[in-house]
Amino acid sequence: MKFYLSCLLLLLSSSLAHAQLEQGTWLVGGAFSFSTDESRTPYPNSTIISVYRNTNFKINPSIGYFLFDKLAAGIKPQFTWYKATPIENSSGTANYTRFWIGPFIRYYLLKPDRQWNFLTEANYQYEITFNKPDKVGSNNYSFNAGPVIYLNSSVGIEFLMGYYYLTYGAGKQFNEFRGIQLNIGLQIHLTK
């Protein structure tokens, strides 16, 4: 009974909730995501291609600023735990911890006075290498979209789904990774 009463009170209190999407508002928060993909890497001077299953767990804090109503831009670092498991023509597993940083831009599609909204976000991040043996950096491009539900006028929970494209290496050792990712995040809107 207490659970249902708590849910009812949360629903009633959040029915008046909406976020501050006006110019001059700060956006602070973050998300975590899980993704899995398959990579194909050709062996040098050969037609053989090694195939790996890659698993990523990412934590993405962010800080942004509303440049215009409903349009925010900012910086988003990312901490990634990465594991590669051999599938075909490959051997050995790899585990890395990665750090990325880069800009993001996001746009909220609906009017600010709603309890929920729909947003789109584009990101670019460059990898700063630490413990990888070859020290080659990577570029990560992603696009996400999905709903945000506001708990009050300052706090929103985001459920985003998107596509990412990652490049790594150069020349014959150039690798590409593509995949779908799911993000769950929390954003806090801070006004002056």
Automatic annotation (TrEMBL):
Q: Which residues form the signal peptide?
A: 1-19
Domain of life where this protein originates:
Bacteria
Q: Which UniProt keywords apply?
A: Signal
Name of the protein this chain belongs to = Outer membrane protein with beta-barrel domain
Q: Which organism is it from?
A: Hydrotalea sandarakina
